[in-house]
Here is the input.
Amino acid sequence: MAARGRAYRKRVYDAAADWVRESGGCCVCGYVSTEAVDAHHIDPSKKENTVAAMKNGTVERLLDELDRCVPMCANHHRMFHAESRNGCADWPLEDIIAKLKREHEAWVLEQAAAQERLPV
Here is the structure.
Protein backbone atom coordinates (compact mmCIF):
# COMPACT_ATOMS: atom_id res chain seq x y z
CA MET A 1 0.00 0.00 0.00
CA ALA A 2 2.77 2.47 0.92
CA ALA A 3 4.62 1.75 -2.32
CA ARG A 4 1.43 2.38 -4.33
CA GLY A 5 0.94 5.70 -2.51
CA ARG A 6 4.53 6.75 -3.26
CA ALA A 7 4.09 5.84 -6.92
CA TYR A 8 0.88 7.86 -7.08
CA ARG A 9 2.52 10.92 -5.46
CA LYS A 10 5.41 10.57 -7.91
CA ARG A 11 2.96 10.76 -10.83
CA VAL A 12 1.47 13.95 -9.37
CA TYR A 13 4.96 15.39 -8.75
CA ASP A 14 6.04 14.45 -12.28
CA ALA A 15 2.98 16.19 -13.73
CA ALA A 16 3.84 19.37 -11.81
CA ALA A 17 7.49 19.13 -12.90
CA ASP A 18 6.38 18.74 -16.54
CA TRP A 19 4.22 21.86 -16.17
CA VAL A 20 7.22 23.86 -14.93
CA ARG A 21 9.44 22.68 -17.82
CA GLU A 22 6.77 23.04 -20.52
CA SER A 23 5.85 26.53 -19.35
CA GLY A 24 9.44 27.71 -19.67
CA GLY A 25 10.02 28.14 -15.95
CA CYS A 26 9.71 31.34 -13.95
CA CYS A 27 7.72 33.95 -15.88
CA VAL A 28 10.16 36.60 -14.63
CA CYS A 29 13.63 35.07 -15.03
CA GLY A 30 13.11 31.71 -16.75
CA TYR A 31 14.53 29.62 -13.88
CA VAL A 32 13.39 26.02 -14.45
CA SER A 33 14.34 24.05 -11.33
CA THR A 34 11.23 22.07 -10.50
CA GLU A 35 12.08 22.16 -6.81
CA ALA A 36 12.24 25.97 -6.70
CA VAL A 37 9.38 27.10 -8.95
CA ASP A 38 6.03 27.95 -7.35
CA ALA A 39 2.62 28.10 -8.96
CA HIS A 40 1.25 31.65 -8.56
CA HIS A 41 -2.52 31.88 -8.94
CA ILE A 42 -3.45 34.46 -11.58
CA ASP A 43 -6.80 35.16 -9.90
CA PRO A 44 -6.72 34.22 -6.20
CA SER A 45 -10.53 34.19 -6.07
CA LYS A 46 -10.50 31.14 -8.40
CA LYS A 47 -7.96 29.24 -6.31
CA GLU A 48 -9.37 25.90 -5.15
CA ASN A 49 -6.31 24.84 -3.20
CA THR A 50 -2.58 25.36 -3.00
CA VAL A 51 -0.68 23.20 -5.45
CA ALA A 52 1.45 21.84 -2.59
CA ALA A 53 -1.69 20.65 -0.77
CA MET A 54 -2.73 18.67 -3.86
CA LYS A 55 0.12 16.15 -3.68
CA ASN A 56 -2.37 13.47 -2.67
CA GLY A 57 -4.98 14.55 -5.21
CA THR A 58 -5.46 13.43 -8.79
CA VAL A 59 -3.21 14.48 -11.64
CA GLU A 60 -6.27 15.87 -13.42
CA ARG A 61 -7.21 18.13 -10.49
CA LEU A 62 -3.61 19.28 -10.17
CA LEU A 63 -3.40 20.17 -13.87
CA ASP A 64 -6.75 21.94 -13.64
CA GLU A 65 -5.38 24.04 -10.76
CA LEU A 66 -2.13 24.72 -12.64
CA ASP A 67 -4.17 26.06 -15.57
CA ARG A 68 -5.07 28.95 -13.26
CA CYS A 69 -1.42 29.67 -12.41
CA VAL A 70 1.79 31.11 -13.76
CA PRO A 71 5.17 29.69 -12.74
CA MET A 72 7.43 31.86 -10.58
CA CYS A 73 10.69 30.91 -8.96
CA ALA A 74 10.48 31.04 -5.17
CA ASN A 75 12.45 34.30 -5.05
CA HIS A 76 10.30 36.16 -7.59
CA HIS A 77 7.09 34.74 -6.12
CA ARG A 78 7.97 36.28 -2.75
CA MET A 79 9.02 39.53 -4.43
CA PHE A 80 5.69 39.59 -6.30
CA HIS A 81 3.73 39.34 -3.06
CA ALA A 82 5.97 41.98 -1.43
CA GLU A 83 5.25 44.32 -4.35
CA SER A 84 1.55 43.58 -3.99
CA ARG A 85 1.68 44.59 -0.32
CA ASN A 86 3.83 47.67 -0.94
CA GLY A 87 1.63 49.87 -3.09
CA CYS A 88 1.12 47.71 -6.18
CA ALA A 89 -1.93 45.79 -4.95
CA ASP A 90 -4.20 47.34 -7.57
CA TRP A 91 -1.75 46.75 -10.43
CA PRO A 92 -2.57 44.06 -13.00
CA LEU A 93 -0.53 40.86 -12.74
CA GLU A 94 1.26 41.63 -16.01
CA ASP A 95 2.42 45.04 -14.77
CA ILE A 96 3.95 43.63 -11.59
CA ILE A 97 5.65 40.86 -13.59
CA ALA A 98 6.99 43.48 -16.03
CA LYS A 99 8.36 45.53 -13.10
CA LEU A 100 10.05 42.44 -11.64
CA LYS A 101 11.52 41.59 -15.08
CA ARG A 102 12.99 45.09 -15.41
CA GLU A 103 14.51 44.82 -11.94
CA HIS A 104 15.87 41.34 -12.70
CA GLU A 105 17.41 42.46 -16.00
CA ALA A 106 19.05 45.45 -14.27
CA TRP A 107 20.46 43.10 -11.63
CA VAL A 108 21.83 40.73 -14.29
CA LEU A 109 23.56 43.64 -16.07
CA GLU A 110 24.94 44.88 -12.77
CA GLN A 111 26.35 41.43 -11.98
CA ALA A 112 27.90 41.16 -15.46
CA ALA A 113 29.55 44.57 -15.04
CA ALA A 114 30.88 43.54 -11.63
CA GLN A 115 32.36 40.36 -13.16
CA GLU A 116 34.16 42.42 -15.82
CA ARG A 117 35.78 44.53 -13.10
CA LEU A 118 37.20 41.48 -11.28
CA PRO A 119 40.92 40.88 -11.77
CA VAL A 120 41.69 37.72 -13.67
